[in-house]
Amino acid sequence: MSLPVLICDDSAFARKAMARSLPDGWDIDISFAAHGQEAIDAIKQGKGDILFLDLNMPVMDGYETMQAIREQDLPTMVIVVSGDVQEEAHKRMKAMGAIDFIRKPIDNAKLTDILSKYGIYNGETSAANRAKQKDVKVGSSQEEKIDAFREISNVAMGQAGESLAQVFKQFVNLPIPNVSMVHTNELAMTLASIDSEQQVSAVSKGFVSKHIKGEAIIIFNDANIKSVRNLLGRQRHSTLPSDIEVLMDVSNIIIGACINGLSEQLEVRFTHNSPIILGIHCDLNEMVTNNISRWEQVLVIEIAYAISKENINFELLLVIPGTEIDATFKQLLDIRGAA
Questions:
Q1: Helix 142-168 and helix 12-21: axis angle, to 10°?
Q2: E strand or H helix at 144, and its extent?
Q3: With b meaning 16 or more CB within 10 Å and e meaning fewer, what string describes 72-108?
Q4: N- or C-end of the chain: fewer Cβ atoms within 10 A?
């Protein structure tokens, strides 16, 4: 009898990538869930003896799902598959009962080792299941492209969050990235979720490869700059840095890690521009729109980082020209073998 395997991730692109990463021909029956509540329902229906669980999801995230599994004593073995690679995230999920943790993008060899380690997979294969897994394809509609960009930015965001957590020695809350395709004159509507009642400061850094280019922008409001300055001063046991030093230090950490995360997933080498201060204590919409007005249409990836214990929040925007989207998506599909 086939082993019921459940893949829970809010990204269709990630669910398909996970399915294709499972050992070829493994005798399993795969089901999918887009969030934790769907996963709980599927487990109760006997569809999830093994659960591959993402952390950052709407409706019910990975932590809430793991808590429900434990409280209801549901019959499933949980392996976390996440872009959030902070040590604290590992500890939390292991303490709640997850048997192991795999970082995105998935290392197929490590995944097979984990399955073998826990006696889940013994190397036996089935031609029918091999064909079924290879049949998992990724579409190329606008919605599917946006979903794919959301997923790769989620992984890059996790790497940046880990770097930030190590510097600040604090757990960094990571959201689901907000991804949208907009004309530059509509950018103000996209940025409406950012509190622009206060003036903001921002740093920009461009990145470019042979076929792909873009702009990364970090946005702080005044209150957050002060909070980060105090936190950096405490961690370094030194005098407090200036506002400009704060902006440059945090921007280099986050933007550098994010761009490296994108570079690894797309298997391209980006050339980085030197970071540029877009403005200190300026109007948000005017500052950002002026910086990217050279492009008619852009893909905007908005990531809101938060350090709850310190009441620190700031935004990262990854902006990719609309003319680059198809080439980037094709590069991604070629790498993942999902075309």
A1: 80
A2: helix 142-168
A3: eebebebbbbbbbbbeebbebbeebebebbbbbbbee
A4: N
CB 84 within 8 A of CB 55: yes
Could you give the C-alpha distances from 73 to 36, 41, 263, 285, in angstroms and in order? 15, 13, 41, 49
pLDDT category at 240 given cuts 50, 70, 90 is low
284-331 pLDDT, tens digit each: 776 676 667 778 888 999 999 999 888 888 899 999 988 888 888 888
Distance of CA 97 to the CA centre of its chain: 23
What distance in Å separates the CA atoms of residue 176 and residue 234, rounded to the nearest whole number? 30
d(CA 19, CA 5): 10
Pairing between β-strand 178-183 and β-strand 297-307 as defined by DSSP bridges:
antiparallel
Sign of the Cα torsion 99, 104, 107, 108 reads positive
Nearest to 250 by CA among 326, 324, 310, 331: 310
Between residues 28 and 1, which one has the greater pLDDT? 28
Cα 334 from Cα 81, distance rounded (Å): 22
DSSP secondary structure, 190-232, as one string: HGGGS--SS-EEEEEEEEE-SS-EEEEEEEEEHHHHHHHHHHH
Closest by CA position to 44, among listed 20, 17, 65: 65
Q: How far apart are CA 87 and CA 102, in angstroms?
A: 12
Which phi and psi angles does 110 have, rounded to 5°? -65, -40
Size of the chain, expressed as the number of residues it contains:
339
Give the three-state DSSP class for 174. Answer: coil
